[in-house]
Amino acid sequence: MRTAGVLAADGGANAAWPGGGWVLWAAGAWAVFLAAHLVLNGRWWFWLLPSLLPPPVFVALPGLLLPLSWATGDLTAAVVAGAALALGARQSGLVPGALVRGKRRPPPPPDGAVRVVSWNTQHWCQSTDPEPFYAFLRGLDADVYLLQEYHHDEFDGTYRLIDDERRLRETFPGHRAVIARGLITLSRLPVAATVETAARRTLRVDLEMPGDGRILATFNVHIPVQLRLISPLRTDFYRAVRTRAADRAREYRGLLGDVAGCPHPALIAGDFNTTAAIGDARRIARLGSDAVALSGRLCPTSWQARPGLRWWRLDWVLTTPGARVHRYRFRDPRGLSDHSVQEVSVSLAEPGHRTLADHRSRHHDEGTHHALPLPGKDRPAGQ
User: Fold this and answer.
1) Distance CA 83, CA 86 (A)
2) Backbone dihedral region for residue 125 (phi beyond 0: left; psi -120 to 50: alpha; all else: beta)
C-alpha cells in the first residue's frame, strides 16, 4: 500500500487521466508556435502563411488544453495553456466589447445618417447570374456603395477589366459612379472630388454630406491577397508570397500616408485580406477606429473558404475623428460572393464650417478607361 501511494504521488499527472502527459507536450508545442508567431508575424514574409490560421484557433486550442490539463492534474500544462490563452487572445479576432457596445449604439443625428455598404463582389457576377446579382445590389438600397473586384478572373494570376457601366447606370439612376483600379464607388450624395492616392489599390472619393455639405472622404480599399492558388510544392508559390508581402507593405504604407494627409473625416472600408492574426492588423489599427464593436458580435467573421466555413474576418470599416458610425452589421451575400456585405450608418460629428476640398487634389474622370491595371503576374488570384 505504501508503494501504491508513492506511485500515485509520483504519477499524479496521469492519475486522473492515464497518458495525460501528452497535454503538456501539446501545450508546450502550441506555446512555441505562439512565441514564434508573436515575434515573426509581420516581420518575416514567410509568416504570412502560418498567420492564415482561423483566428479563433488562438483561443480555442489553449482554451481546450486548459481544462484538459486540470483533468490530468498537470499544473505545469495548465500554466502553459493559460499563458498561451492570455497571450493569444488579441490574435483571436474576438470582440468582447461588442456584447456591450452593440446594445449602446450612438443615436443618429436629427437629419439622419448616410447608409454605406462595402462589398467584395467576387469578380463581379463572373460565376453567377447577373439578374440576381444586380437585384441584390439594388435591394441593399445604400446611399453609398464601396465595391471591390470590378473585373473577371482569368485564373492564371491575372484578371480582365470589364465594362458594365451602362447596366450600372440603368440600375442606379440616382447614383454617380466613380470607377478606377477595379473598384467602384457609387454615390447618390454629391461627389466633391476623386483624389489620387499613393495606395494603388484604393479609390478615394470625397462626398458632400447632407445638411451643411461638409466633406466625408471615403477610401474604397482592396489589399491584395497573400498567395496564389498554385501548388505549395512549386517555388513560384513561395516567390509569389514574398512578392506579395512586399506589395502589401507598400499598399499599407501608401494608405497610411493617404489617410494621414486627408484633411476631412474619413471612412475607410473594404477587403483588407487581413485578420486579427496577421501582422498587418497593426497597420490597420493606425488607420482609424474599428467599427466592429457596434456589430454586437463576439466573433465577427466576413469570409468563408467554402460554404459553412466562415471563420475569418477579412473586411473592415474604420473611421477617423469627425466621422461617427451609428450602426454596423454584416449581411449575408446569398451565395453571390464569398464575402459578407458590410453595412454601416455614418454621420459627421459636431456640425461646423464647410471645409473646401483640397485644391491640390488630382482628379479622375468617370469611366472604366481609368481603371488602373495591376501587373498581371503579380495580381493575386482571387483578389
Assistant:
1) 5
2) left
Rounded (10°) CA dihedral 338, 341, 342, 346: 160
Q: What distances in angstroms separate CA 237 from CA 46, 52, 174, 231, 279, one per listed residue?
A: 11, 15, 45, 7, 20
- Residue 315 · residue 303 · CB < 8 Å: yes
Q: Which residues 6+ apart lie within 8 Å of 135 measured at CB?
A: none
What is the chain's length? Answer: 383
pTM of the model: 0.86
| Cα dihedral 281, 286, 292, 298 sign | positive
The rounded distance, in Å, linking the Cα atoms of 327 and 345 is: 5
Pairwise CA distance, residues 87 & 36, whole Å: 12
Task: Give the distance between the most distant pair of CA atoms in the chain.
Answer: 91
Q: What is the pLDDT along the chain (383 residues), one digit of tens a residue?
A: 444 443 344 444 444 445 558 999 999 999 999 999 999 999 999 999 999 999 999 999 999 999 999 999 999 999 999 999 999 999 999 999 888 876 677 777 767 799 999 999 999 999 889 999 999 999 999 999 999 999 998 777 778 889 999 999 999 999 999 999 999 999 999 999 999 999 999 999 999 999 888 999 999 999 999 998 889 999 999 999 999 999 999 999 999 999 999 999 999 999 999 999 999 999 999 999 999 999 999 999 999 988 778 899 999 999 999 999 999 999 999 999 999 999 999 999 876 534 333 333 333 333 333 333 333 333 333 34
d(CA 325, CA 113): 9
